[in-house]
Design goal:
The protein is mainly alpha-helical. Helices cover 72% and strands 0% of the residues. The protein has ten helices and no strands. Helix 7 packs antiparallel against helix 8. The radius of gyration is 19 Å and the shape is globular. The two termini are 25 Å apart.
Length: 272
């Protein structure tokens, strides 16, 4: 049997360059290189106390994990084994695209284009969702399996929560729901929906939980933000904590079941 052809150096280098460009953009977005911190850009609409669905400040530390995973992936996908991977042949352009969109999002927020940031974030979410779908077939090599799970799982999970927060910030900036009685119940419903989406990622991936755990993190930090920040809401805080806890328990049970019944899980993936 012939081994699959190697991906060209061009696409591998482009992918790595896109990732490192995104990381450079993140430094600018943090204010470390003269840029305006994201929490202060766009008139502070993306700050921790800007909307009922804004995660507390500590939530954003997960970007360090995401970027670390992307660096590992960018370097690993240059290797000969990754160059011959059919999975990477399909995912590598999407990974590069996600990095470009990440940097673009920071750029449009820096100039205060909140509506454009929502569009970019939705495209980023769609790209990451596509990567997640392509990851579903069983990956034979353990290193590839772990690198993909620990890079794009948290990336998808966090961006899912961040998209909800981004949309809420844009709507608030346009005066939608500002002070309305239905704003709090809607925020509670959206927190629950976010947890349900996290549960669906667990079911769809037959028990893989990296994306769901990142969503647990983001939803829980919404609870933190509404419990002790400048925009307090006990109903939203309690709902977010409850939704995050329920999702965490569901994910842990699914992971345990995967360990106990690995053969059944693999069979279901092959059948799909």
């Amino acid at each position: 049997m012939h081994s699959p052809p190697k991906a060209s150096w061009t696409i591998r280098i482009v992918c790595a360059a896109a990732v490192f460009a995104a990381i450079a953009g993140a430094f600018i977005g943090s204010g470390a290189m003269g840029g305006t911190p994201i929490a202060e850009a766009a008139d502070g609409r993306l700050g921790a106390d800007s909307t009922l669905l804004a995660p507390g400040t500590g939530a954003f530390s997960i970007w360090s994990l995401v970027y670390l995973g992307l660096v590992v992936y960018a370097i690993w996908q240059l290797t000969p084994r990754a160059a011959r991977s059919d999975t990477q042949r399909r995912i590598r352009p999407l990974a590069a695209g996600s990095a470009v969109l990440n940097a673009l999002w920071i750029g449009v927020v820096q100039v205060g284009w909140l509506g454009a940031s929502v569009v970019v974030m939705l495209f980023l979410l769609a790209v990451l969702a596509r990567i997640f779908v392509l990851m579903r077939p069983h990956i034979e090599h353990p290193a590839e399996r772990w690198i993909m799970a620990l890079t794009f799982g948290p990336y998808l999970g966090w961006v899912s929560v961040a998209t909800v927060a981004n949309i809420a910030a844009w709507l608030t900036a346009r005066g939608v729901g500002d002070g309305a009685e239905w704003a709090t119940p809607l925020a509670c419903v959206l927190a629950v929906i976010a947890a349900l989406i996290g549960a669906l990622t667990v079911v769809y991936s037959s028990g893989r939980i990296a994306a769901a755990l990142a969503m647990v993190w983001g939803i829980a930090w919404i609870g933190v933000g509404r419990g002790d920040g400048g925009l307090e809401s006990m109903p939203v805080s309690v709902t977010a904590y409850s939704a995050a806890t329920a999702l965490l328990l569901f994910a842990l049970v699914a992971a345990a079941r995967r360990r106990v019944y690995p053969a059944a899980t693999s069979a279901s993936e092959v059948a799909a």
